[in-house]
Amino acid sequence: MKYQFDFSSVLAQWPLLLEGAWVTIQLSFLATVAGFVLGALCALGRGSRHGWLRRLVGVYVEGIRNTPLLIQAYFLIFGLSSVGVTMPILAGAVLALVINIGAYTCEIIRAGIESIHKGQLEAADCLGMSKLQVFWHVILRPAVERVYPSLTSQFVLLMLASSIMSSIGAEELFGIANRIQSDTFRNFEIFLVLWAIYLALSYMMRLGFWLLGQIVFTRRRKLGTPL
Amino acid sequence: MTHEQLTYLLLGAVGTLELSVLTFIAGGLAGLGMALARISPVRGVRVAAAAWIQVVQGTPLLVLMGLCFYGPNIIGIGSVPALVAAALAMTIYSSAFLGEIWRGCIQSVHKSQWEAAECIGLTRWQRMAKVVLPQALRIATPPTVGFMVQIIKNTSIASLVIGFAELSYNAKVLNNSTFQPFIYFGCAALLYFAMCYPLSRWSRTLERKLNATRG
């Protein structure tokens, strides 16, 4: 059997695909920003003086990291709607993604914080910096700078994983593709086109993070040198 | 939750384990090949392996699943069983990530070890098999165990495109007929946790133990 490729019916839907890609970008952007804030707060919480807070964050991080995103989304979205809390699908998708990525970001940033030399904190103390100043200038920024490559990879993985949100009804790129699939039945072609779009998105995202890194981390130093 | 429902859920967990084990074996072999290809003396092989890893790591697993599910039809093999299609997609996925992890481990074996092996006149394969890989294995164990957790979690989406009946699929079926999401997805989450958490802990213990004794 010789298979006849036919991309025309799929590519005819390019405005829909573009729309889906735009939703994917929005989902990923919101989840990345909110997930970073949540992760940074949790990393702070894990090093807290209060035992209960450390344990609470620990349970959250381990619980999320050892269960699949799909089950988390089902639990959250279907669970909430069964007790009468309904929200727009996209809001639910962002919420599920943020809760998921927060746990990973927390662990990455924590590793960065742990790599900061104690002497740095003592020096900051000697300079009479306030707690907030110490946290921002001495702990968070150098920590994030050091783990920036890992964070970037994790956020790109998040963008790719946002395709799972189609299973709760989100009309992002993968959800749109499902719709086109049931209209055109060109299954393989659709997946090839999707492949190309996701690849393009992930390279765009890597480029974006690289540019952001160039702007935010202005100190020029070789990777791996002590902070 | 009735007895039948619990059995059905556990049956799903068996499907999850089946796919995970299959993926780990096939993905492990592919990953090893990929890691060795990445450090091959032949430039073309190195570049091809690097390109493969880049492309796979930029692709959502769901898309790989779709390509592996509909692909065999296209090249004239006909339809393959859901388990095979899912395992194939997961193998491709793991080959890229394990390949990158293991390449790092192989290259972190100290350079003097490579040189010493060369000096005593071992061939390239002997050097690999007798000197470098045994040492790399120690370094590679913790992240590899950690990646097993990723594999188990990722099997959960095999039902979305391919329709392979694993834990999350069975939990969804149960929820669709009874609409008690907290119970069924809660139980599914607990079962996943029971499979993943011991591996996570083990990985961390190994990391501490193997790091402390590393020269």
Task: Describe the structure in your own words.
The complex is a heterodimer of chains A (227) and B (215). Chain A is mainly α and 227 residues long. Chain A has one domain (8-223): MetI-like fold (Orthogonal Bundle). In chain A, 77% of the residues lie in helices and 0% in strands. Chain A has 9 helices and no strands. Chain A has helices at 8-11, 14-46, 51-65, 69-82, 89-114, 118-126, 131-161, 173-184, 187-216. In chain A, helix 8 packs antiparallel against helix 9. The radius of gyration of chain A is 21 Å and the shape is elongated. By secondary structure, chain B is mostly helical. Chain B has one domain: MetI-like fold. In chain B, 83% of the residues lie in helices and 0% in strands. Chain B has 9 helices and no strands. In chain B, helix 3 crosses helix 4 (82-107) and helix 4 packs across helix 6 (124-154). The radius of gyration of chain B is 20 Å and the shape is flat.
Please give the radius of gyration of chain A in angstroms.
21 Å
What is the strand tally of chain B? Answer: 0
Distance between the termini of chain A: 62 Å
Q: Mind telling me which CATH architecture of chain B this is? A: Orthogonal Bundle
Q: What composes the largest sheet of chain B?
A: none
**Fourth-level CATH superfamily of chain B:** MetI-like
Cα distance spanning the termini of chain B: 54 Å
Classification by helices and strands of chain B: mainly alpha
Helix content of chain B: over 70%
Strand content range of chain A:
under 5%
Specify the overall morphology of chain B.
flat
How many helices of chain B? Answer: 9
Q: Can you tell me the residue ranges of chain A where pLDDT is under 50 for at least 5 consecutive residues?
A: none
Overall average pLDDT of chain A: 90
CATH superfamily of chain A: MetI-like
Structural class of chain A: mainly alpha
List how many beta strands of chain A DSSP finds: 0
H/I helix tally of chain A: 9
Helix content of chain A: over 70%
Give the overall shape of chain A: elongated
